[in-house]
Design a protein that fits this description.
Blueprint (H helix, E strand, L loop, with lengths): L46 E5 L6 E8 L2 E9 L3 E5 L5 H12 L5
Bound molecules: zinc ion.
């Protein structure tokens, strides 16, 4: 899990503490690669279940659509780039989400 100074109890928190969400850990050595694909133009309704902190240039979102889950990656630079994973049943994608946040896959 990403470390977040704002969430850690203690006296050395800068004031006012900014709110931070989840931070994805940097990829570990030997991490597995996720195949990131161009977003499909499916017309189904996408609900974002979880997302990582907005303070990073790259945001990951765990999305649900049509009974399946996928992860969307938004890279904000000069140009915004959006990529998505394949769609999987909830249990498998939730597992991938946790592994992504811990840096096991990237
Ligand atoms: Zn943050």
């Amino acid at each position: 899990m990403g470390d977040c100074a704002a969430k850690r109890p203690g006296a050395d928190i800068p004031l006012p503490p900014p709110y931070h969400g989840i931070h994805a850990s940097p990829p570990r050595d030997g991490h597995k690669k996720i195949s990131w694909m161009k977003p499909t133009n499916r017309s189904d309704r996408v609900r974002v279940r979880r997302h990582t902190c907005e303070c990073k240039a790259t945001i990951y979102e765990l999305c649900a659509a049509g009974g399946l889950l996928f992860i969307r990656r938004t890279t904000r630079g000069k140009k915004v780039e959006i990529r998505e994973t394949e769609r999987l049943v909830a249990t498998r994608m939730e597992e991938l989400w946790v592994r992504l946040l811990s840096g096991e896959v990237h």
